[in-house]
Amino acid sequence: MTQRWQKLIRQLQQKKYRRQEGLFLVEGEKSVLEVLQAGWEIAGLHCTEAFVADHPGLAMHPALALTTAELLGKIGAMATNERALAVVAMPPDAPLQYPDHGYLLALDDVRDPGNLGTILRIADWYGMAGVVCSPACADRYGPKTVAASMGSFLRVPAYTAELPEFLAQAPDALAVVGAGMHGQNAHQFRFPGAGVLVMGSESHGLSAAVQAQLRHTVTIPRFGGAESLNVAVAAAVLCDRIKGK
Amino acid sequence: MTQRWQKLIRQLQQKKYRRQEGLFLVEGEKSVLEVLQAGWEIAGLHCTEAFVADHPGLAMHPALALTTAELLGKIGAMATNERALAVVAMPPDAPLQYPDHGYLLALDDVRDPGNLGTILRIADWYGMAGVVCSPACADRYGPKTVAASMGSFLRVPAYTAELPEFLAQAPDALAVVGAGMHGQNAHQFRFPGAGVLVMGSESHGLSAAVQAQLRHTVTIPRFGGAESLNVAVAAAVLCDRIKGK
What we know:
alpha/beta; four-stranded mixed sheet; 245 residues; homodimer; 10 helices; 33% helix
């Protein structure tokens, strides 16, 4: 691997350089194969010889560059990656639209990249209409988010938007439902057919500006002593309730 | 902090020494306050002066030893801990019993300590009867498990047992329900009043020996493209379905 690639790969672990270059990293055998299959534009495909031997279709890929397991483990963000790393072009965000049916998930300052990636995976499992991130959320293209999403970043439409404005302009027909501590019992609430489900940050919950835009608040009932649930766990429970009465 | 304490605290990051000494680490302001309040036996209470100034009741604690934020950050397992660390005696496990009502969660080789801690927090939120870990699960007293449980390790009865034997001897009245890929739809399944919910490992699902003991298998319905859900996320969705029809 050239020094230039090594430098770029290190830089792409920082959001600043990802935005500047319009590129991000996908690491690990499974995710690299998925990004190839999804047809996203690949700027660099750094693989070991053993990996190419296992997937001979890659041998003619125009961006292929052979490298060693040792170097992959050293320069990537994922210490356990010893087979493949792709440098991928960020696609432009699709225009953000309100859903006709189903639910968008909106995330109000979910700052932990592992949580964001897990939420993308959950949104994918439940076939949600998409995920809207407030600007202070973790970067959707950060290596920890990409890894935690287990390939779901390829399938879930994702957007960045200022949530108070986005929610304020939601059509009247949409439910704007926030997850909070003192809302209606999520086991009894009847989710309307289309809407936005808003999840708050790990430490502060929903911001006041977002709360002011909610049309409903729901609460997952608690039966024991824990003070809270992790935001990704709470998102999954509510997506499950949206999808199955 | 004496050299002896420093050595012990470093050792207690390894399971071998935790078992040998019967001690484990609790790190961070909130968790240390919770373990004190719960009345668990404290062998060493290492705090900064600022922490004791904020919590003057601690000044007379017999195990108190003042230390510095710098040293706490350096010797503990949690790099962000700069206030307090407790060395706590492991309580003996309570005798494992089948529940009369409600559900035990049984974990078949859940090896990631973050997942195990998150599951303890979920079991606490939903007031589950307890958590039974197979011997290959992550250590319940490891620092990452304790941190991820957010204090729930203090409240949730937890046990270690060989699951095939434990499930084989379950009374006829109990539901033995496994979470799998080809079971009944969890949105339609009517969970009987008392039982054991068995979750498989992150990578291999339920082992054959455990599957042989199941009386029901349930599947969380999928509406999109993700291949699977994280084991803690799936446990939460199923606990939520057990508690709210």
